[in-house]
Amino acid sequence: MLIHSDRLFPVEPAAREVARRLYAEIKDLPIISPHGHTDPRWYAENEPFPDPATLFVVPDHYIFRMLYSQGVRLEDLGIPVKDGGAVERDPRAIWRRFAAHYHLFRGTPTRAWLNHTFSTLFGFTERLSSANADAYYDRINEALRTPEFLPRALFERFRIEAIATTESPLDPLKHHETIRQSGWKGRVVTAYRPDPVVDPEFEGFRQNLARFGEITGSDTFSWNGYLEAHRRRRAFFREYGATSTDHGHPTARTANLSQGDAEALFRRVSTESVSPEDAELFRAHMLTEMAAMSVEDGMVLQIHPGSFRNHNELLFRRFGRDMGADIPSQTDYVHALKPLLDRFGNEPNLTIIVFTLDETSYSRELAPLAGHYPALKLGPAWWFFDAPEGMRRFRELTTETAGFYNTVGFNDDTRAYLSIPARHDVARRVDCAYLANLVLTHRLEEDEAHEMAYDLAYRLAKEAYKL
Ligand SMILES: [Zn+2]
Hints:
By secondary structure, the protein is mostly helical. Helix content is 50%, strand content 6%.
């Protein structure tokens, strides 16, 4: 068997029994996926996925970063090169290369997600290896030609109640429009991710500002016009179901500048070559402006800071962004968030959800902040920590100070569509295991644990993101 029915449950028999009982009641709950990066085109066009390699390997930076670290060239995995140079085009060859390296994923969440998918969707019982690579390829390839594996059929099979994609303000949302026109009942909403027009260091920032102006009919080279463009675009995104914004800044820094200082800073970043200090200050101030707009329009504000993007210079030049070369860095929240919290931390109608890639900040900074400020909530274990041990550490380091109700359930944050049920299942199991231990150490009654398991799997995400 590829997956065991007791996976991730406590080793101790009495605790395992409680975890099983908790899990049995929540395992089939619908999936709320309030933050992620699936392609809205899939739901709009409902076309078959092309082949196993294009579905599982080529778009998944978890997979190719590991293969790359062990000497496999990205060209040999079919990753397009910016200068148009030669890359592997044969999906079966890519799949065989991936299968030959499957042992590299031992002990990683990638392997747990893949095994879950291979087992539950395609009925495999044997571990993927070079020996069975072709048998795997053929069975998956055949399944992908059937109506049950079309994106919308999978959406229903996965019991997705709502899923958010993530788009730039420059995106016309045409796939969301197609979904709406189609009459299909699946709930796919967008989320507002304005980094391309908020981060002066983003590629093409000034051209992006010009385009932002054309789209919104605002003068995006004046400070007030620029803010107005955001207001209009946020309203447009809300028409397509958006309930949240998302900000992927290098740090969590916020600022609260006077109107005059903000205007002068905007003039500099929009017209001159930008200094790193100005870029950082502008991003910082824009988080506070975004919070001000959220107070007006009710959109939930997510901050995903602390990723050093495109760390590998050579890879970035050759392949572009999102190539598995993003590395976590140390992140300060206590000082960084203060300007924003000074202004909006006590707002009863504002929700700011903070994530971290710096686990040392959980107990020292984030849990105390979220356990105090009404506007602040903690996002779940993210990215490198979206894994059983990462989730367990998250609960252990935050619960005693922030409780469960200042957290927001699970986000799969994925572009790997088929892994969504597997990822939610891991979160549900780890939370049940954590709750079982609280029950067995007499810190929680079992009836409360049942309620909590439901809240963590379903209700908190739905409520925090207003879905
Ligand atoms: Zn994300």
